[in-house]
Amino acid sequence: MSIDTMSARARMLGRLRGAHTSPATSVEALDARIDAHFKARRSHAPLALDERIAQFERMLEAAHAQVLRATTSTWAADLAQRLEAAGVRRLLLDTACAEGKALTAALAAAVQTRDYAQPIEQWKAELFDTIDAGFTVARSGLAATGTLVVAPDANAPRTVSLVPPLHVALVYAHTLHADLHAAVAAERWYEGMPTNLVMISGPSKTSDIQQTTAYGAHGPRALWVVVVTDGDDETAAQHGVIR
Amino acid sequence: MSTTNQIPHAKGAENPLHFVPTAEFRQRARTALDDPQLRKSFRGAMDFLQGKRAMQFPDADELEALRDLGEAVRQHALARLPELLEQLEAKLRANGIHVHWAETADEANRIVHGIAQRHAATRVIKGKSMASEEIELNHYLAQRGIDCIESDMGEYIVQLAGEKPSHIVMPAIHKTKGDIAHLFEEYIPDTPYTEDVDALIQTGRRALRHAFVDAQIGLSGVNFAAADTGTLWLVENEGNGRLSTTVPDVHIAIMGMEKVVAKLEHIVPLSSLLTRSATGQPITTYFNLISSPRREGEKDGPREVHLVLLDNGRSQAYADEQLRATLQCIRCGACMNHCPVYTRIGGHAYGTTYPGPIGKIISPHLLGLEATADLPTASSLCGACGEVCPVRIPIPQLLVRLRTEANRAPDESVAQPLRGQGANHSKSEQFVWRFWSGAFAHPRAYRALRWAVTRLRGLTPSQQMGWTQHRTPLKPAPRSLHDLLRERNQPQ
């Protein structure tokens, strides 16, 4: 840091410190208020797992995403068929993870897979110009807003869900939280955040021209969400109503 | 591919993008009022946005409770602002993000330019950032041979047109699709004229695609920052913000220093208020949470991330306990969407980066009252802005306070003088008001005045300054209300 900005720092903080402030409410009191607000909202409408899934799907569809509900044993074949039908020829995914392996095995020969093998600098043009779709597994989902919580990592970097014109995300129904507040608490976000965490609630869009919504502004034109349910009552029993 | 050839912005080069001084505010407002197309654009857009917001808040109790929460979060953060900024800085540094402090617009520009020079960068791709508009960064860098390309569709459109945003959330809200079709046809190669919005957006996408690939630096704003985890929280729909902060090797974020909050969880109510109030969406397409540069083994994301903390007059608002509420703002734009003045004159008339009610209360701190003294008076004080504000900024009260400061004698000593105090001060006006209050405070003087005014009404001038421009002249009644009532109440 240059000496200039060092003194700017001292001056800025000095001016702020010079102002008279009334003592702030304690952070605990504020946290409690926030928690109470969202808990009260959720207790108005506690949702069983099935209803939570339905809400998640409804919200996503309202945001122009396509939802495919399937079970652990059926999703890969379902998705593979759709990808081929949609004309996807190059699919970017992590072929080493369990879901990646399952999907790769199910894909028709016409659909090539591509791992994110090297850093972006080494294949930027190829990534931007030749990949038809990117496949990721979401960490969790938010039912209230129809949102995928995606934590990119070395094998499924950020651009997989961003650059290809089609993004396909798989989310396990049992990972759905009621809302953002519940997710932040349950996943203990305060304990440390990944480099980048993204919440995705539909395909890229804009209403910048005369308030007319158009999809595929700069990110994916289409978002497919594969919701994997275990297809039995056990899931509901295990996870019950999330408050 | 050279981005300079691909993305021409000739108009921007012809007219330097400085804001016009607000002394011309009245004239610009008049011109805007006489432009039926502009008024139609804004009326339609504001009605649309008001409706969208209303649909997001069907439950009035929930809305009010959430506004209470939003206000509490922002006030909590402001009460501890210096500590939170230090905590944010320490946490970001520990996460590997560089932190810079800029007292003025010029300092912020120099910091960004310095980073660009170190990387020998000539191409910057920008996500939407009102803070960068505020410091006129594009212009500063362009003069030094660095090309900034706006990638938000609305920002890109106004950049092509050589204009400034007319709304903080929807920059090109004043443009019709016909205007945009002409712009694209003229400036983007191989683009036939079309008013089809999908086609226009695809043209914008195509034109900007390679700019993301070619840029050495991505620049963005910040919607919220969490001091506890060292996280920058960016809100958007298009994906250009994610691309700008992911694809180039360097990411520079610029943030007004008031935007930090104590904890990541505190952003939960704020983010809900922001998207629902701004565009009537339950959530935007992307919430992009950035906590560090690319780590060892990761394959994308910038290797270097910088945050520039900007003061630029904010500490003046902070110094005063009443005016500090200005800094609660989360930049949703709901106040302008509901403002009868903004709806009629549009965003450009204000001449400031932030138009509408929020602009009227923040601009005097950024630019001084000399340049902005007319802005707080451009309000009917109808109160709509205060009613919709998601963090309960008492905007009408702050407008009145700024009027007081603009009319105060320039040499009057006050605890927290504002830059440009007394910019609207007028000795004759002071005299008239003193005379008026004297007359009303002393019954004898009041009776004498009443007698004189009703008898001498014939002397009232027919030209009464601004009043008679659009209205018939005022003339005192032949008999005062007192006299009439006394007569009526007399027993018959």
Q: Could you list the spans of chain B in which at least 5 consecutive residues all have pLDDT below 50?
A: 1-18
Task: Please state the second-level CATH architecture of chain A.
Answer: 3-Layer(aba) Sandwich
Q: Report the top-level CATH class of chain A.
A: Alpha Beta
CATH T-level topology of the largest domain in chain B: Rossmann fold
Terminal residue distance of chain B: 96 Å
Radius of gyration of chain B: 26 Å
CATH superfamily of chain A: NagB/RpiA/CoA transferase-like
Number of beta strands of chain A: 12
Mean pLDDT of chain B: 94
Number of helical segments with 4 or more residues of chain A: 8
N-to-C span of chain A: 46 Å
Radius of gyration of chain A: 22 Å
Overall number of structural domains of chain B: 2
Structural class determined from secondary elements of chain A: alpha/beta
What composes the largest sheet of chain A?
6 strands, parallel
Low-pLDDT ranges of chain A: 233-243
Please state roughly what percent of the residues of chain A sit in beta strands, choosing from under 5%, 5-15%, 15-25%, 25-35%, 35-45% or over 45%: 15-25%
> Which fold name is given in CATH as the topology of chain A?
Rossmann fold
Strand content of chain B: 5-15%
Biggest interface, which chains? A-B, 85 and 105 residues
Could you give the topology of this structure?
The complex is a heterodimer of chains A (243) and B (492).
Chain A (H helix, E strand, L loop, with lengths): L2 H16 L8 H18 L4 H14 L3 E6 L3 H11 L4 E3 L5 H9 L5 E3 L9 H7 L2 E5 L2 E3 L4 E4 L15 E7 L3 E2 L2 H7 L9 E5 L4 E2 L7 E2 L6 E8 L3 H7 L4
Parallel strand pairs in A: 1-12, 2-3, 2-4, 4-7, 5-8, 7-12
Antiparallel strand pairs in A: 5-6, 6-9, 10-11
Helix pairs in contact in A: 4-5
Chain B lengths: L2 H4 L3 H5 L10 H9 L2 H21 L3 H20 L1 H15 L2 E5 L2 H14 L4 E4 L3 H5 L2 H7 L3 E4 L2 H8 L16 H11 L9 H18 L2 E4 L3 E3 L4 E6 L3 H7 L3 E7 L3 E2 L5 H13 L6 E5 L13 E7 L3 H6 L14 H4 L2 H6 L10 H12 L1 H4 L11 H5 L6 H13 L19 H15 L1 H13 L11 H4 L10 H9 L3
Parallel strand pairs in B: 1-10, 2-3, 2-4, 4-7, 5-8, 7-10
Antiparallel strand pairs in B: 5-6, 6-9
Helix pairs in contact in B: 4-14, 5-14, 11-12, 18-21, 22-23
